[in-house]
Amino acid sequence: MRTIQKTLCAIMLLCTLTACSGTDGSAQSPASPTTPSTPSTPAPPAALTMKEQIKALEDSGKLPKLDRSTSIAGLDTNNNGIRDDIDAWIAALPITDVQKKAALQDARVQQATLLVDLTNKSELKRIGNLIARSVQCMYFSFTPDYQQGFDLGSQIEAITANTKERAMQYLAYNRARSGSVTSSVTGNTCDQ
Q: Hey, what's the torsion of the CAs at 110, 158, 82, 85, to 10 degrees?
């Protein structure tokens, strides 16, 4: 079920990235007739491009400031297996230290889905098992409000695959895992 949700999330993210912006990054909108402005009626402000809208949301704090390079891996200067931008975003979240550790574990596993060798079946299985452990850790760390943990996990998944290149790689990972089985886990599966 989680794999289906991940695939759907990645597809929606990819569709949003490709359908909402033109080749120049501007928002697509149907042509509208222009009305001449009169001195008493000021002209409406020019519409913001998609890129400008995202920057405004990032500057306001409503969206995390994310790396949007074409690199699948992105920057990980401290080599902890998590992109620096996601690492900083999690550090700033208003959640407990235990919950942050669970979120970091989830982010590390999500990043691994983008970097795993898709031809190595044993590595794919290992990553699948790590995902199961991470989901259980989020559940355990956010109980009794486990839905908050699941929602945060979905956010981490979405921001990890935040570019076309990353979304395509994430879809490729899910295709490579299609039909595989991962054992259920119980208890506290948190790494730290």
A: 180
